Amino acid sequence: MWMFWRRRRYVLVFLAFFGFFNVYSLRVNLSVAIVAMTENRTVQYPNGTIGYEQEFDWDSTTKGYILSSFFYGYIFTQLIGGYISNALGGNYVFGVGVGVTAGLTLLTPLAAHAGFGWLIAVRATEGFFEGVTFPCIHAIWSNWAPPSERSRMATIAFSGVFTGTVASMLLSGVLADTLGWEWVFYILGAFGCLWFVAWMLIVKKSPECDPYITTKEKEFILATLQRSAAGGEKVQHPWRGILTSKAVWALIVSSFSENWGFYTLLTQLPTFLRDTMHFELQAAGFLSALPYLVMGLLLSVAGYLADLCQIRRWLTTTQVRRYFNCGAFLAQTVFMLVGACILRPAPTLTCITIAVGCGAFAWCGFAVNHLDLSPKSAGVVMGISNTFSTVAGILTPIVSGQLTASGSENEWRTVFYIAAGIYLIGCVTYWFGVSGELQSWSIEAREREREKLRQDGGQGYVNEGLVMEQKA
């Protein structure tokens, strides 16, 4: 089992991990870099006097719009990503999405010097291409992930989100202090371009298209997914069933809630630690990464436990999704409230770290629930839920920027209270609406129903023939 490179589905997971590493390292880098770009720096003028200057004189509201600009483009390609991944292949769309984002990251310093309008345009375009990634990966899992390995494969790949967040925050602080903030974008962008080449050469659309997969592994995957090697039929998504499903809407609310808290901290934590908790830039970068390091470590553990509970039949799939997701949301609500009430450097950072870490268990609920409801429509359902989640990504930097204009402790308490309240709403909604079963409107359920009717019809003809033969 440790020789993962001999199994193509595990090679896919390994590269998907670094794909999501790039997805979030390229998204997060500006959250730390913008602190260096706008901080007051001590300068000595030719006449010998000492003064302070900002390279970019942006107030908190302007910074909020810049940080949220990524999501202006991101929101438009959620549904598109899920739809075209079925037609073109999720592997191609995922690779191009990350690759173009990496290329645009290299242009970020040039755009910033041209004006904040150009910076917003580049970031929005990055978001446009990166928006296809999450819907596409669900289309990939629907072809490659056996149900008994679904939680593990998805959560290991998704842990790249938090590893990338940690690495980006750590590197961004160090690079901004040592080489200058421009190198934050140059180094992370170059790494993303290298990954793009490897992904496009190695990853294939499905086991049937991979020339290097063993016959045994291919037959195992196809058998567990109840697919034949023929496949390739055009997918007609049941839009009415999807949009009227209680389970889908519970998933949407849960995804929005988790992403509201996640993006609040992702975009604002470095600023909060620097301006309100009075940490130095490099220390703020390190400490901002700590919650996501914990979450990344816990995500693989949570995925293993979720699969174990299903394999040993301790819990049904619905119970796994409900208990893991809602238990995490409840813990996040409590620790966000406690951290806001205390608002002191060490205790508050500890509470934030625990709250974010608990999110690893929530990802075993809403983040993989799409595949339970309808594997063939999982990319589209993910696109719908991630569209609403993107609204959270757009609003949180703007709302936080408006609420924390002076950076006072009471203003930041309000930000944390709002996040805690939204977590609680997500907990209650998901508890009563979740389902881990294949839905009656799904493509798979309808195919099985048609197959059953065909078999029953055939058996009916056989029985009728026997009766006529006996009468004769």
From TrEMBL:
Instruction: Report the leader peptide range.
Output: none
Q: Name one GO biological process term.
A: carboxylic acid transport
Q: How does it sit in the membrane?
A: Multi-pass membrane protein
Q: Where in the cell is it found?
A: Basolateral cell membrane; Cytoplasmic vesicle, Secretory vesicle membrane; Cytoplasmic vesicle, Secretory vesicle, Synaptic vesicle membrane; Lysosome membrane
Q: Where is the Major facilitator superfamily (MFS) profile domain?
A: 11-438
Q: Which residues cross the membrane?
A: 65-85, 92-112, 118-141, 153-171, 183-203, 247-266, 286-306, 327-346, 352-371, 378-399, 414-433
Query: Which keywords label this protein?
Result: Cell membrane, Cytoplasmic vesicle, Glycoprotein, Lysosome, Membrane, Symport, Synapse, Transmembrane, Transmembrane helix, Transport
| SUPFAM superfamilies per the UniProt record, alphabetical | MFS general substrate transporter
Q: Which GO terms describe its molecular function?
A: symporter activity
| Entry keyword annotation includes Nucleus | no
Q: Which reaction does it catalyse?
A: D-glucuronate(out) + H(+)(out) = D-glucuronate(in) + H(+)(in); N-acetylneuraminate(in) + H(+)(in) = N-acetylneuraminate(out) + H(+)(out); L-aspartate(out) = L-aspartate(in); 2 nitrate(out) + H(+)(out) = 2 nitrate(in) + H(+)(in)
Entry keyword annotation includes Metal-binding: no
- Quick one: a GO cellular component term? synaptic vesicle membrane
Task performed by this protein: Receptor for CM101, a polysaccharide produced by group B Streptococcus with antipathoangiogenic properties.
Task: From the Swiss-Prot or TrEMBL record, give the protein name.
Answer: Sialin
Organism equals Anopheles melas
